[in-house]
Amino acid sequence: MTIKDFMTHHHRECDRHLAAVETAVEAKDFDEAMRQYSVFKAETLRHFKMEEEYLFPMFEQKTGMTSGPTQVMRMEHAQARALFEKLDEALAQKQDERFFSLSDSLMILLQQHNAKEEQMLYTMMQRVMDDENDEIVKRLSSYES
Predict the structure, then answer these.
(1) What angle do the packed helices 122-129 and 56-63 form, to 10 degrees?
(2) pTM across the whole model
(3) Torsion sign across C-alpha atoms 25, 30, 34, 39
């Protein structure tokens, strides 16, 4: 499996977790929604951590590009984290309409963000770090949140 494939697959896993949260909120099952949401949030934050602590610094070190695509991705991660705080409140207060408004915003942000990573950044990373692919994927597979 390539770095690009691994990270793209993890995007899809996070998408499935968000869909499960939305299904539970739609059914007004807020206990299940909170369970699903904590998995979605933890996996998404783990994904950000893999990138910010491991992949991005390695890519920046190998390319010398520190104010390019990785900087934009970090800013978008910060935007998602801010939305998580609001989602936390909406779910805790069982505000389904507010939750859906916020989850729509988060989904749009993440879909655009993921597309940029999958179409551009991961391709660049793969090219630059391909000689270490297996070691990198192994480390990503066991990355803790």
Answers:
(1) 60
(2) 0.94
(3) negative
Residue labelled with tokens 């990573």: 117
Long-range contacts of 61-66 (CB under 8 A, 24+ apart): 62/128, 62/129, 63/124, 63/128
Six token digits for residue 40: 């979605």
Interatomic CA distance for residues 124 and 116, integer angstroms: 11
Q: Which of 58, 102, 62 is nearest to 82 (CA)?
A: 102
Q: Which residues contact 71 (CB under 8 A, 6 or more apart)?
A: none
DSSP H helical ranges for 27-121: 30-49, 56-63, 69-92, 96-116
Residue 5 has pLDDT above 90, yes or no: yes
Return d(Cα 129, Cα 76) in angstroms, integer: 23
Measuring CA to CA, how many Å separate 60 from each of 38, 74, 86, 118?
31, 13, 32, 17
Q: How confident is the model over 29-87, as pLDDT tens digits? A: 999 999 999 999 999 999 999 999 999 999 999 999 988 899 999 999 999 999 999 99
- Cβ atoms of 138 and 6 within 8 Å: the answer is no
